[in-house]
Amino acid sequence: WDDGTYSSWSNLNYAHHAWSNPGSYNIKVQARCSQNTDIESDWSAPLALLLVEKTPLTAPQVPNLVAPLDSINVNAESITFHWEAAEEADHYKIYLIRSSDGSVVTELEVNDVTSYTKDGFPNDGTDYRWRVAAGNSAGWSEWSAYWSFTNGTAMEPEPKRESEYIRIDEDRPTRPGSPPAAETPTAPTSCTQHQSERAAKQFILNSDTYRHWAYNDLKLIKENKLNTANAWQFTYTFTTSVLAHGAPEDDMFYPQAVTQHRIEVIVDNCVVIEAICCEYWDEIRGAPLWFDLF
Predict the structure, then answer these.
(1) What ranges make up the beta strands (E) of the chain?
(2) What is the pLDDT of residues 197-231, one digit of tens each?
(3) Residue 263, burial from CB neighbour count under 10 angstroms (0-12, 13-18, 19+)
């Protein structure tokens, strides 16, 4: 065995051995006659063996999430969550909550798989957040960052919901033929970041440009806290099927072209006070910014 030890004679064609230390060893075998044990063969050519010290097993790395994509709109009663396999991981746990109140929807461990399907999602515009951790016998990784998604379309407007308030400057002109602006209810006196984000998102989902033309791929890409106490600016992107803004008009031609839109929404105390799409379209008034000049 090249470590100063020899095995006993045996009529088997294999043997077991354990070395005390890592290193290089040259293993040789010798045979002898079963009828006359004084007759022995020469030693065989050596078999080189390299033993290395085994690296202690550590907890896996954080798994990467795959789908549903972050900040996407989903429309399904059954949703499959996907993530990438983490090295040395042999089981995972998934954690799914409602964004509004943090209530747990799913907290589950699964075997060595990289997906999990959950049924029974209500199609009511509820926001969710999910994350995954990877594990093995050495322990668990840290949780992945949360990804969020909304299932289904936004709920129908309800009276006096904070996220539905829209402030309209009645001194500014609107598109010809538009009805006069309705009196706006008094806005709440305070508003959290999450409430502001939901107000912005609700506004976009109900806007003419998004309802008539979008592919239902709204995604939040940036958020900024403004100087005002409860004011936030949110930047979203979405894709439309035509090169257009606002509601369709019968006498207009809309070229078919997949178009990326970027909309910046300012929310103050849960009130959408500004919504500019593609740097020129005022989504609140349904008219281009330069309409003020005429």
Answers:
(1) 23-27, 47-51, 65-67, 72-74, 79-83, 91-98, 104-110, 115-118, 126-136, 139-140, 147-151, 219-225, 231-242, 256-268, 271-277, 281-282, 287-288
(2) 888 888 888 888 888 888 778 888 988 888 877 88
(3) buried
> Tens of pLDDT along 143-178?
999 999 988 765 454 444 444 444 444 444 444 444
Residue type at 135 in one-letter notation? G
pLDDT in tens, 61-89: 999 998 888 888 888 888 899 999 998 89
Structure tokens at 215: 């592919």
Peptide bond into 68 cis (omega under 30): yes
End-to-end CA distance of the chain: 97
Per DSSP, 232 falls in state E
Helices (H), the chain: 193-206, 208-213
Q: Which residue, 62, 85, 82, is CA-closest to 74?
A: 82
CA distance 206 to 202: 6
How, if at all, do strands 104-110 and 72-74 pair? unpaired
